[in-house]
Amino acid sequence: MTWSPATSERADAIVARYPERRSAVMPLLYLAMREEGRLTDEGMKEVGDRTGITAAQVLAAASFYTMYKREVGRHLVSVCRSISCHLLGSEAVLDAVADETGVPDGETALDGSLSVESVECIGACGGAPAIQVDYEMVEGMTPDSARALVRWLLDESPEVIRSDDLQGRFGGSPSFDPGPVDPVGAIGPFPAFGPYGTAAT
Ligand code: FES
After folding, report:
1. pLDDT for 42-85, tens place per residue?
2. Which of 180, 188, 143 is nearest to 161 (CA)?
3. Is CB count within 10 Å lower at the N or C end of the chain?
4. Residues with CB under 6 A from ligand 1
5. Residue 27, preceding bond cis, omega within 30 degrees?
6. Is it true that domain 5-64 has CATH number 1.25.10?
7. Which ligand 1 atom is nearest residue 85's CA?
8. Low-confidence ranges of the chain (pLDDT < 70)
9. pTM value?
């Protein structure tokens, strides 16, 4: 797949920032993922061509960092499995998510509606067990609230995911006051923040 003119132009600008064009591999992988909704073989080849590294080197970077997704559903449910969450029941939360959706850890639903993954600490240990949906946080989960959350995702397939909504509807005790309400939220199974160097301006 050929990248759109806008993505191509953005990629050229990113590559031009680095003395060695191979240094642009990570932001270009984000661009490739945004261009096609996931990281494809064609997308990685494009990154290799633009950075002058081999397909194996591109794949090595893409497969090391878990936020580069070769396959992802419309929504991504990430259940923390690190120590605080583990001690407070994340295994049961993950089991509930898998049971309610029929999607085991590390897999995507056949209809592409949702992917499930267990992840290392997502920085909400004080509100364990924590989950992210499309990288939007919700804390203080229980197996029952996790079931309700993924059922809502499957039934309503919301356009935008907002941490404040998730916390209010499904969460328990948060680790801290999150402050002002985020008016934007996540708009896809990608980080809500723009990767460095890929903003429109
Ligand atoms: S251990 Fe789960 S958020 Fe830190």
Report:
1. 999 999 999 999 999 999 999 999 889 998 898 999 999 999 99
2. 188
3. C
4. 80, 82-85, 121-125, 128, 130
5. no
6. no
7. 2
8. 178, 184, 186-201
9. 0.84
